[in-house]
Design brief:
Elements lengths: L6 E6 L7 H12 L4 E4 L1 H4 L9 E2 L11 E6 L1 H14 L4 E6 L14 H10 L3 E13 L5 E6 L2 E6 L6 E7 L2 E8 L1 E5 L7 H4 L11 E7 L9 E4 L4 E6 L10 E5 L3 E5 L4 E15 L5 H9 L5
Parallel strand pairs: 1-2, 1-4, 2-3, 4-5, 5-17
Antiparallel strand pairs: 6-7, 6-17, 8-11, 8-15, 9-10, 9-14, 11-12, 12-13, 14-17, 15-16
């Protein structure tokens, strides 16, 4: 059976010179099968010799491609997932680990061509990872939209005092948190900042949102798991919202962020786009937890 894949987008971590040889091998492997490789410009610049295929800007990769390859660590995948989500590009991703942890980028370098073969013949295991859409609403009426795979984090500046945050779900008050910040995480993001802040691990197959306060002033402010259908709204309240000495920020997957001012709010809900992550069939979720996070070790 002929593969429907005709174009493949390729994105590598900036400055990842150790991936240069692999880029050439992947390009040659794809073109030998009648597939056009399409590289993001900084990725193409890593190679010492011209690569077969095309070069196009990162924000357009996924629009006409039927598969994406990401070379790097989890941060590279997060950035790519955000761009795909923002563009609404419904394309599967093979994530190859060149990072130190690689919790999301599970494909090892030695497994690249096996993973690509499975992607082309349709036998690769696909996981749909829920993403978050956040809308920052400014007091002046302007709005900023962001798509995240892991989390949306509202936190204080380096020299700020504890901030006061009011969180609601579907118009109903959840709580008023006096804390260093607040994390809204997807199941995928539950093993990231959320886990470090004492939040629960949520299996990626569970449709849920996790709300976790960061260093709350009151110990009864514990993390809470909400249905994925919940529409969250977080407002900076109290003196922090009125004092120019207090800085509050919202960040998205730790990749980009905005400062929040008086009267600003952040609305967070399930994004209409899900990341399609292709994985080797031999890699189970709990196996990854044990290997990468040393989970449940004695």
């Amino acid at each position: 059976m002929t593969s429907p894949i005709r174009r493949v987008g390729i994105v590598a971590k900036p400055g990842l010179t150790e991936a240069a040889d692999l880029l050439g091998k992947i390009g040659t492997w794809l073109t030998a099968r009648g597939i056009t490789p399409c590289y993001e410009p900084d990725t193409a610049a890593l190679a010492s010799a011209p690569l077969p295929g095309e070069v196009r800007e990162a924000q357009y990769l996924g629009r006409d491609e039927q598969l994406m390859i990401v070379l790097g660590g989890d941060g590279t995948l997060l950035g790519t997932a955000g761009r795909l989500g923002t563009g609404g590009y419904d394309v599967p991703v093979v994530a190859v680990n060149f990072g130190s942890l690689g919790f999301l980028t599970e494909v090892r370098v030695t497994e690249v061509f096996e993973a690509l073969t499975q992607a082309l013949d349709g036998t690769a295991h696909e996981e749909r990872r829920m993403m978050l859409e956040a809308i920052v609403r400014r007091a002046d009426g302007t709005e900023l939209r962001h798509i995240s795979l892991n989390d949306v984090v509202i936190t204080k500046g380096a020299l700020s005092r504890m901030i006061d945050l009011v969180a609601s779900a579907d118009g109903q008050l959840i709580a008023r948190f006096k804390a260093d910040g607040l994390i809204v995480a997807s199941p995928t993001g539950s093993t990231a900042y959320n886990l470090s802040a004492g939040g629960p691990i949520v299996h990626p197959g569970v449709d849920a949102l996790v709300l976790t306060p960061i260093a709350p002033h009151t110990l009864t402010n514990r993390p809470v798991v909400l249905p994925a259908s919940a529409a969250l709204d977080v407002v900076v309240a109290g003196e922090a919202a009125r004092s120019s000495r207090e800085e509050t920020y919202v960040t998205f997957d730790g990749q980009v962020g905005d400062m929040l001012g008086p009267g600003d709010s952040v609305a967070i809900h399930r994004a209409p786009y899900a990341l399609r992550l292709l994985k080797p069939a031999s890699h189970g979720y709990f196996q990854v937890l044990r290997q990468k996070l040393r989970w449940a070790e004695r």
